[in-house]
What does this fold into?
Amino acid sequence: MSVLRFLWDFFVGDDPLVAAGVIVALVVTALFRLFGGALGNASAADEWTRALLVAQSRLALAAAAVPLRETSDGGTEANGRIAWRTVVTPYVPPDADQDLEGTAQAMPTRLYRVTVDVQFPGIGAQPRTLTLTTVRLGQRNPA
It folds into this structure.
């Protein structure tokens, strides 16, 4: 006789109501695990959404600054769970032609890279980072 058969006979026996109760308990346990995992995923999606909203709003604020200049800023949101850092630096295109770069130096405007890094708690308390970057046109030497 197998161990499972022995345990079944010992705890359940020949009573169909007890057998049905055991089966229902197993199904309910599986459903609780399924819905518990879904709630964890919903919570993670909520954190990603909040982090994305913070990153978008900070990127919009930094990119709309007049005059646009090299700077960095950082802070946390009101609940302290989301930290952000904004950095504005001159943008230098990769593989830029030297003649083009020389011509660009004579212009009164230049391109700036605006980057926002947002750090927020992930699953298992491991921090996650979301980064958004854009390029904006601004004055070369703002007063």
User: Anything to note?
Assistant: The first helix runs from residue 3 to 11.
